[in-house]
Every structure is written in C-alpha cells, then in structure tokens.
Fold:
Amino acid sequence: MNIQANPSPNFLKAHNARHLWHPMGDPKVSEADPPLIVARGEGVYVYDADGKKYLDCVAALWNVNVGHNRPELQRAMIEQIDQLAYYASFMGTTNPPAIALSALLMEMLVPENMARVLFSSGGSDANETAFKLARQYWKIEGQPERTKIIALKNGYHGVHFGGMSATGTGPHRRTYEPLVPGFFHVESPYLYRNPWTDDHEELGRICAAELDRAIQFQGPDTVAAFIAEPIQGAGGVIVPPENYWPLVRQVCDKHGVLLIADEVVTGFGRTGAMFGSRGWGVKPDIMSLAKGINSGYVPLGATVVNERVASAWQKPHPLAGIFHGYTYTGHPLACAVALANLRIVQEEDLPANAAKVGDYFQQRLRELADRQPLIGDVRGRGLMLAIELVKDRKTREPFAPTDPIGKKLVEGARARGMIMRFTSGKIIISPPLIFTKAHVDEAIGILSETLAAAASEATAA
Ligand code: PMP
Structure:
C-alpha cells in the first residue's frame, strides 16, 4: 500500500482515529466511534470516503462561505503556486497577494475607518495579535497600566493563552488553568436564559451597565480593551438586543477603553451584513478576522486596527515597532485565495443572500418549533442560527451536557444526509452563504425527521 500516493477507503477506515487526535473531542470516544471521513466537496455538499452525499449545514466550521471546491479559488491557488508558494514577511520582504489583500481589506473597511492590518494563520492568532496590539498601544500612548482585557461570559476567542483567557466557556478554560492574569468577564446578553428580564432593550441596558461597573471597579486607567463577538457563535448563537452594541461603544468611549470585535465568524457576510458589528452600526477600534476571509481553503487570520490605534505607531517611541508576527504572516497562497474569495463575496453579494435565505431559514425553523416541543428557542441572524432544545418548554429545563440526545441528533442527521453541529443543548446551523431556499427546504425536511425520531425515543425512554 502506497500511503503517500493513494490511501484507499479501506486503509482510511482501518486507520481512522488510530493515530489522530481530534480537536475538542475525547480520544476514547473517537476511537470507539470514528469520525466521518470527508473526502470530497462541491458547493454546499460534501461526500464521505464511500461516496455518500451530505448537505453541509455548518460550512465545515462556519467558514466555507463560498462553498466547497469553487473553481475560482482553485484557479487562484494554482496561479499563485506557479509564481510563489510561500515567502516570509519578516526581514524587509513581502509579497504581491499580501499587499493586494491589505488594500482590499482597507477598501472594504472604509466605514469603520480601519487603517492597518497584520496577518496571521487563523482566528486564535488574530485575537492574540489584537490583545498584544491593544496593550502596546497604551504603552506607546503613555498609559502603561492599561493592560486589562474585559470579555463576555459564554464568549469564544480561540485556544491560545490570551484568547483562552478571554473565552468564557468552562471546560476550555478550566482544563488549562492557570490562565493569563488580567482577563475579566461580565455577563453576556442572553435573552433566553438570564436572571433579569425577557425584554430585549432592558437586557441590553442591564448588560451594558454591568460592563460600565466592571470597568469602574477595575479602574478605567487599568483597562486596555473590551472584546466580544458581535453575535456569540460557539457559545450558542447569542444575538444581543439592538441597543447592546451601541451602548457598549458608548461605555468604552466614556472610559477610553478600546473596543475589539471578534469577527472571526461574523466577518464577511455571515450575519447578513458584511461585518457583524456593522449590523449594529458600531465601529470597533480593532477587528479580528479569519474563517470567511478565504472560506478556509488555506489557513489565514487578520487583525485590523483603526486610525486612532494605528496613529500611535507613528510616534517616536522605543516600543513603537511591531515585535510580533508569525512565520505565515501574509502567506501568499492564503492571501491569493482570499482575494479570489472576497471577489465572489462581493460580486454575488453573499451578505444579502445570507440575510434573505437566513430569514427564510428562521421562519421555517419557527414553523418547525410550532409542532416540535423539544425546541425551546430559535434564534440567529443571517445564516448564523441556533435551535436551543429543552426537556420542558415551560420551565426551559435544559438537557444535561451528558445527555445522549446530541449524539443521536448528529448521527440521525448524518444518516439522512446532512451535517449539523450540536453543542451544549443547541443545534448550530451555519451553512455556506451560497445556500438557497431549496437547500433550506432540504435541511428542514431532514431536521424535522431527525427531531421527530429523537423526540419519540426520548418519550419511549
Ligand atoms: N474567535 C471566534 C469567534 C471563533 O469562533 C473562533 C473559532 N471558531 C476563533 C476565534 C478561533 O479561531 P481558530 O480556530 O481559527 O484559531
């Protein structure tokens, strides 16, 4: 058997998960129940090693926004490889795709007054860059005590030490403690589950006021930045009330605190606006970007900063250099694919499609909720949607994290030809942004059957 040239489906199945550890999973579980081997992709569909077809309702990991195996992106890769597969951006060198992409991003981010970009290899990297630049900004500005970062409970900001310390979900933090000092958390505006109110506006005011008090408690002159996702993704698609982000911007301005929007998932159209924060009419000081920037075809992250932040680096200060960067910063292949990808996002107006098809998806999910009591809440914006399942709709009693329902649903959907994600009691739906209403109907058919089967098993149990 020639492993390098052509591993057969039988070889792959025999070796599946024997040597590989999978992110965010228990190796014992993946050994007993090996992962699906995704071997081929086309548009909104992928195929496993046996050729079975699946509707990809998660765009791999919220990121394959233009769909799988787009010829335009394949061509961009080949053309770039023909010229130069890789060169570094350290030591006084750069490359054409990185320069062109920086110009395109600044053009796309004119409404946010963004001025500079520093590339990296993914979302976790982009957030580390954001935290480091925020701290450095205050040192250059003569306020070196401004080092603290405030984040939201339930937020997800990646797996490096900074992002993990900003993350607000239990096991991602606890397993790897001690975390980085100087990271603090406030409540997220979670309408379906909060101790205060069912009123959107009131919740927005309460949560923004909590941020205000947290900054005052820490001492505004010690707080560098507040970071949040415009819509919390991995935490369960928590869509903040309309007034929340504008109020957060006001609170940050009142105390001079930088506002970092983690747009790793929400950037480039997923929420129905080109950027998630734009949907709230809010201009962050720093934005972390990844995933949809090149639909995940080659790893890429980017941290963009506005004029206010960038201007500090114009100062004659011993720390006003960039003492940060990755070997793959400005990777030419990743940037070339991003250029081709963003052309599609703009020409096909994928944010508008996400808004239109997302509204339809949400309407169909609400119809499903009317006849399926397992569904406690349906929420989302654009093609970033979640269904929160409950044992009892009146009391909103959640399923225990150990309840087998999630596994049953994911497997049931797969058996019926659809990939979806289940996390902490929520079904997450984040398909490619090229989804059509016909794809939504296909997904709803599978989801409806899968939920009905799980509900009858739950009643029988
Ligand atoms: N921020 C957010 C909001 C994310 O959802 C993710 C990953 N899903 C990250 C950061 C980390 O990105 P990566 O996995 O590319 O490091």
